[in-house]
Amino acid sequence: MPPARKTALSSGSSSVQDYVKVIYAFTEWQDKPITSSQLAVRLGVANSSVSEMVRKLVELQLVDHRPYSAIELTGAGRRLALTMVRRHRVLETFLVQELGYAWDEVHDEAELLEHTVSDTFINRMAAKLGNPQRDPHGDPIPSADGTVHVPNAVQLEELDGGHTGRITRISDADADLLRFFSSEQIRLDDRVEVVGRRPFGGALVVRFGPTGSARELDLGDQAAAALWVHSDPHPGCLLAS
Amino acid sequence: MPPARKTALSSGSSSVQDYVKVIYAFTEWQDKPITSSQLAVRLGVANSSVSEMVRKLVELQLVDHRPYSAIELTGAGRRLALTMVRRHRVLETFLVQELGYAWDEVHDEAELLEHTVSDTFINRMAAKLGNPQRDPHGDPIPSADGTVHVPNAVQLEELDGGHTGRITRISDADADLLRFFSSEQIRLDDRVEVVGRRPFGGALVVRFGPTGSARELDLGDQAAAALWVHSDPHPGCLLAS
DNA sequence: CCCAATTTTTCGGCATGCCTAAATTTTGCC
DNA sequence: GGCAAAATTTAGGCATGCCGAAAAATTGGG
Ligand SMILES: [Mn+2]
Ligand SMILES: [Mn+2]
Ligand SMILES: [Mn+2]
Ligand SMILES: [Mn+2]
C-alpha cells in the first residue's frame, strides 16, 4: 500500500500558503506561469529555497512542475490559493473600513493575519462588511466557495492616446506608490483619459477626474504600470470586433 | 565587548510570547510562581522543552530562574506578558461582540491571532469596542500602557455557606465547562449565594440569579473552582476587619 | 551548432522548537 | 541522616524552512 500521500486539503504551513498564493497571484492579471526565480524574488527567499519548497508542493499535489520549467497550480493548489487570497483581501478591507487604516498600511498586516484566521472568522467578517466584491486596491475577493471574477482591465501604460476608461485596480505592491496616488487624489473608479506620450520614451500624459474638472498629469512608467483601467470601447480600435 | 545581549523588547517568537503569557497568567489570581512542570502542562509541551526555553528566556532577560526552582518574570517579561494578555483578551472581546462567537469558541482563535496582530491593530480594535475593561470571561484587559486591575475575587469553591456575592470571572480554561455554564444560564455579574455542602465531600449547593427568582443548583468541584466571585461582606466573617 | 551566460537544482549547514531517554538534583518520609 | 520517588535538566535527534556554494541543465548569440 502506498505511503498515504499527504492531502493538504487542510491548509499547509504558512510558508506553503504564501508560496501557493504568490504562484496564483502571478497569473491573476496575465497568463504566463511563474518561474522559480520570479517566485524567489516575490517571496524574498533564495532560489535554492524555492527549489526545495516546490518539490514539497509537488508532493502535496498543490503544484505541477517539471524540473527547469515553470510552476503551475493543480486544482487543489488553486483552491488553497483562492482561500488565502480571499483571506488577505477580506482582511485588508476590514482594516480600511473598520479600523481606519490607509490603503498603503494594510498589506503587511494582512500578510501575517491571513495565516492565523479561521474560515469562520473570515466568513463572518466578510458578512459584516457586506460581502465586498473587491479589496481597497480593486483586487477581486473570491467568494467562500472559491469563485472569482477578475475584471477586464489593462495597464494604463499599454493604452494609446485618446483612450478613456475607469480605474479598476491599483497594484498594492509598492506602498510608496500608493501614497503617491493618494497625494495626487487618484482613486479607484476615477475616470481617466490617455492624452499621449512625452517624446523619446517620456512620461505618459493622462487626464484624471470628472469630465468637467479634470486634472492633467505626467505619470512615470512605474505609476502607469500600477494603474489598471477598464477601457471604454474606442472608435479607432479595430480589435473591438 | 560583550556579545550585545538580545533585548527582545520587540516581541520575541510566538513561542516566547506564549511562555511568558502563561507564566504571567499563573500568578494573576494567586501568588505562587509557576514551576517547570506546571508550565509544561499548560503549554502542552514536554518538561525538557520547558527547560530549554527557560534558558533562552533567561538570556533574553524575560525571566529570572535558578535551576530547579520556580520561574518568575522580570520587568521586561511582565511588560511583554501584559501586551500579550491584552491582545488575547481584546481579540476575544471582538470575536464575541462583533463576530457573534460564543464565549466557548473564542479562546483557540485568539491564541493564534494574538501573535500576528500589531499594536496599532489592537489599539484601534480596542477603541472601536469602547476600550473594554474585561473580556467575555471577566478577565481584566490590561491597558495599552501596561496597567491592570485584577478584581478582588475568590473561587466559589472556597466560600462557606451563607456567603453571597457576584460572579466576577469564569475560567475559560475548559470550553466544555463554559458550555455547561451557558446551558445553566450562569453569566458574568449574576448574583450567587452559597447554600452549603452536600455531606461527605459532596457537591456545593448554590443559589443563582436575582433574589426573587433564584435557582438552586449543585455544582461539582471543577465547576465551583472555575467560578470566581466578588464576595459581599459577611456578618460571620471575622477577617472583615 | 556550440559554448558561455543564465537559470535551476543539489548539497551541506544553520536556527528554532520540539521530542524521548538518560542523567542529575531536590524532596519528603522513615 | 539516608534513600527512594519526583522534579528538573542535559544529551542526542528530528522536522521545517531558510541560506550560500557548487553542480547541472537550459538558453541564446555568434
Ligand atoms: Mn495586499
Ligand atoms: Mn502571508
Ligand atoms: Mn498563543
Ligand atoms: Mn478569556
Tell me about this structure.
The structure is a homodimer. Chain A is an alpha+beta fold and about 240 residues long. Helix content of chain A is about 35%, strand content about 15%. The first copy, chain A, contains 8 helices and 8 strands. Chain A has helices spanning about 15-25, 35-45, 45-60, 75-95, 105-115, 120-130, 175-185, 220-225; strands at about 65, 70-75, 155, 165-170, 190-195, 205-210, 215-220, 225-230. A 6-stranded antiparallel beta sheet of chain A has the order 3-8-4-5-6-7. In chain A, a hairpin with a 6-residue loop joins strand 6 (about 205-210) and strand 7 (about 215-220). In chain A, helix 1 (about 15-25) packs across helix 4 and helix 4 (about 75-95) crosses helix 5. Chain A is globular and about 55 Å long. One manganese (II) ion binds next to loops of chain A.
Properties at a glance:
homodimer; 241 residues; alpha+beta; 15% strand; globular; binds manganese (II) ion; DNA-binding
Care to give the gist of this entry?
By secondary structure, chain A is α+β, with helices and mostly antiparallel strands. Chain A contains 8 helices and 8 strands; from the N terminus they run αααββαααββαβββαβ. In chain A, strand 1 and strand 2 form a beta hairpin.
What is the gyration radius of chain A calculated from CA atoms? 20 Å
Count of DSSP H/I helices of chain A: 8
- State the assembly state of the protein chains: homodimer
Query: Mean of the pLDDT scores of chain A?
Result: 90
- List unreliable stretches of 5+ residues of chain A: none
Number of strands of chain A: 8
